[in-house]
Amino acid sequence: MMKPRILAGLIGAGIQASRPPALHEQEGDAQGLRYLYRLIDLEPLHLDLNALPDLLRAAEQMHFTGLNITYPCKQAILPLLDELSAEARGIGAVNTVVFKDGKRIGHNTDCLGFAEGFRRNLHDVPRQRVVQMGAGGAGAAVAHALLAEGVEQLSIFDVDGARALELVDNLAQRFGAGRAQVGTHLENAMAQADGLVNTTPMGMAKLPGTPVPAELLRAELWVAEIVYFPLETELLRNARALGCRTLDGGNMAVFQAVKAFELFSGQVADAGRMLTHFQSMNTSL
Fold first, then answer.
1. pLDDT value for 4
2. Quick one: pLDDT band at residue 284, thresholds 50, 70, 90?
3. Numbered residues of the known binding site for shikimate
4. Would the CATH topology of 5-108+253-283 be identical to that of 111-248?
5. Is 74 a catalytic residue?
6. Residue spans per domain, the chain
7. Counting CB atoms within 10 angstroms of each CB, which of 109, 113, 135, 183 has the fewest?
8. Does the structural domain 111-248 have CATH classification 3.40.50.1820?
């Protein structure tokens, strides 16, 4: 039986350093698939979110199997889809679109991706109070994962207060009122926190800096990051200098790609092999 041909892509802004193309293609090679993965970067194309309808239509016309969706498109793409998985609907953000039977079906593999990395690396950390920076598409997925993993009180900070409130309301529908709240005073929240998670783009090579001043960190805190280029952000570097336990963004990048690969190909991905490949790409930089 002939194995399927896969044509996938990633839509986002400033994604030239993205790892998914190599991750997907090498896993496809390992499984004997014809697997091509292309970047559709809004920045060099001089496009913005208004181009999403045309890009989706073009991908369908060129018989793409599906698309990954990243910053800043994970929520803007929702109205352009025909169906949402239960997880994507609950989170209110999509990072994977599968074209099937003439329909655009949205999924969210970010939540599962972050949760898998968290379970593997921070399974035994205290989680009574956690501070999360960012309430965008990735932030929504991570917040769902954190509450599902037993975080009791999640304080969410975002430069857009309305967006943070919308996420808190969304979380209340699934997890009950009171477990998530809009953060109001970062210094106080950090002083009481067990853990800190960054879901903003702050720390990326093209957006250097840290979402939380180094003086608010302390050794007892655990710190998780979703930015993976660079793998050691300024936030993680500051945290590690203090002796904090940390989780880098590579974990979410790999484990969300594992699930997306399976959605695109219909084949089971080898998570260990994809993790090893990701690590080899970063050590060869």
1. 77
2. low
3. 70, 95, 110, 228, 256
4. yes
5. yes
6. 5-108+253-283, 111-248
7. 183
8. no
